[in-house]
Amino acid sequence: MAAAPAAAGSGASRGRRAAATVAAWGGWGGRPRPANILLQLRQGQLTGRGLVRAVQFTETFLTERDKPSKWSGIPQLLLKLYATSHLHSDFVECQNILKEISPLLSMEAMAFVTEERKLTQETTYPNTYIFDLFGGVDLLVEILMRPTVSLRGQKLKISDEMSKDCLSILYNTCVCTEGVTKRLAEKNDFVIFLFTLMTSKKTFLQTATLIEDILGVKKEMIRLDEVPNLSSLVSNFDQQQLANFCRILAVTISEMDTGNDDKHTLLAKNAQQKKSLSLGPSAAEINQAALLSIPGFVERLCKLATRKVSESTGTASFLQELEEWYTWLDNALVLDALMRVANEESEHSQASIVFSPPGASEENGLPHTSARTQLPQSMKIMHEIMYKLEVLYVLCVLLMGRQRNQVHRMIAEFKLIPGLNNLFDKLIWRKHSASALVLHGHNQNCDCSPDITLKIQFLRLLQSFSDHHENKYLLLNNQELNELSAISLKANIPEVEAVLNTDRSLVCDGKRGLLTRLLQVMKKEPAESSFRFWQARAVESFLRGTTSYADQMFLLKRGLLEHILYCIVDSECKSRDVLQSYFDLLGELMKFNVDAFKRFNKYINTDAKFQVFLKQINSSLVDSNMLVRCVTLSLDRFENQVDMKVAEVLSECRLLAYISQVPTQMSFLFRLINIIHVQTLTQENVSCLNTSLVILMLARRKERLPLYLRLLQRMEHNKKYPGFLLNNFHNLLRFWQQHYLHKDKDSTCLENSSCISFSYWKETVSILLNPDRQSPSALVSYMEEPYMDIDRDFTEE
């Protein structure tokens, strides 16, 4: 075959190609050096100059070098592909060549993602590497984007089948060859163009999977408002396509994580927020707004999330999707697991799918199906679980975004919560079967299992839904809402306004609401379960905000306090994350509630148990300080109440007696200030600073603030590092002013959770930071001048 016509258009181009070939051969008369050729191609790929494509070589040269170099004929095929893919081509021959290239790469990619990976890595020049090195990736990008080119005023078209082949080859190359995905991610016009290929069902899954991989490595987040006709594109997706599209959305609506722990400090976050204010909304926020502007988008997500297994798409369309999975490597492990499930169940069923293993003799190695094929129930369930994972994640992110109230309103209107309640037993928290799907190298209890991930995503959604929002009462059913009203009536306190305002047509139905179901599984959870953390966080979010006696009693009556104490004391939980979530929950459950302290004292009824409890508290104040804060606030309130019931609890409760001692409070105060510094403050440990402030605010109320500061000074000297603690506290308070005086939400949370007005918080901090050394309530009055270091700019340390 002659050289490619497009490359032979002039003598100059032929001369350049000959010169490149001579250079590759090491000069006229030199011996061929394939390694040198590949090196120069790689250099050309990086620089964009020199050898970059197969078309720069003669067909004779490529043929001669193919066998000894083990190139599998790929460079010659690329030469032909270049010649048959020009603008005036009918693309028929082009598609035939793609059919030849595809199996050379797909088998290698399949081996790469299975146990045969080691064998592939031992090959000197894998097919995918050669394909990319000789310009195959760039050529396929050009072919795919031909429809964007106008020829004599008309847009060019290529078939869906040809697009599908191009996408498959590109993805296989991304799988096996390092750097290809990043190079594609840099082609922003190509990434945007890929979205348009999702309009066809034939190319949807391939396109979506490639886009997901590309966006996963893209340095800058793509903006969905740049996608042509986004609203029409998404509106025309069927439910399965929309669920798969959520995999892409997960990348486009979540704020990009730098992966650097320093970026998670409050100093860095504040700096980033200041920068963001000048730059406007982030790409993630713009993308969230773009999605929410699509008519019916959230409603469709809610329907997907709450769809029962029996309502999911029938056998035939799922088989078609399995076929796509089989040919699409991103889901190879999933399909392999599904096939194993099916084979196991087929032994016990006369009407099951019979799958042929990979490498079967049939043309595409696809599943055989009988005329009366039935999909095994476990596969239907797993199919639904994998969809719901993505949908719940997107809903969760939207719930935490700028349009939170809008999303909350829509989620309530479209009955997401009652729908999830109906799925709780049969799908979300279903019992594991012997053949439950697990991925290679994992087990049923692994966090990577789809079953496990669905549960965690469900709990995260509940946490986001309940957190500081009156819609949290939708987690109850009508009977449970009536119970809340009865609790308020019996205690002779006003009924919670949010309960009165709850639309009863939108709450859970059935015998139990979602919150009650969650409590039931929470109490049955094994001690080592990874769910404990997320369950406690979800329940705690229901209690957050202004303290509600009725909410607390609702949970206390269901044995929640005893369960928490059992986990902390009797099981002697070792997980720091679980302990922190349980301490936080316990604090919210007991705060200002005399009945809760009575229950606590009844359970912790021996000194031995109480010492175990204190040991858990003192083992990490970062984890337990919220409980310390809640008990301290409760003690202060109880001491100012004249009530026989309260007096009885004050005299009997070990925990209240322990916290009431000044040495105990000073010990907590000293350690809370000592374990945090401005440069290491995060959203997780800033609570230590606020707890230390609560102790000092309550001391100020009792006109004992100077006493506490003198005791801090004495403890500082006793520890043999004078000045360190008070200087550190001074810096922390300066940061507190910068952080909280410009953030309405945080200040509101502090006020609601402590029942101390935010103005009192601000006044106390100002008094402590007073520069007058004569003031008995100013920190500087207790610092010796040689050790004073209070003017440092901590933002630059």
Automatic annotation (TrEMBL):
<dbReference type="GO" id="GO:0031464">
    <property type="term" value="C:Cul4A-RING E3 ubiquitin ligase complex"/>
</dbReference>
<dbReference type="GO" id="GO:0019902">
    <property type="term" value="F:phosphatase binding"/>
</dbReference>
<dbReference type="GO" id="GO:0006511">
    <property type="term" value="P:ubiquitin-dependent protein catabolic process"/>
</dbReference>
<keyword id="KW-0675">Receptor</keyword>
<protein>
    <submittedName>
        <fullName>Transient receptor potential cation channel subfamily C member 4 associated protein</fullName>
    </submittedName>
</protein>
<dbReference type="InterPro" id="IPR022162">
    <property type="entry name" value="TRPC4AP"/>
</dbReference>
<dbReference type="InterPro" id="IPR016024">
    <property type="entry name" value="ARM-type_fold"/>
</dbReference>
<dbReference type="Pfam" id="PF12463">
    <property type="entry name" value="DUF3689"/>
</dbReference>
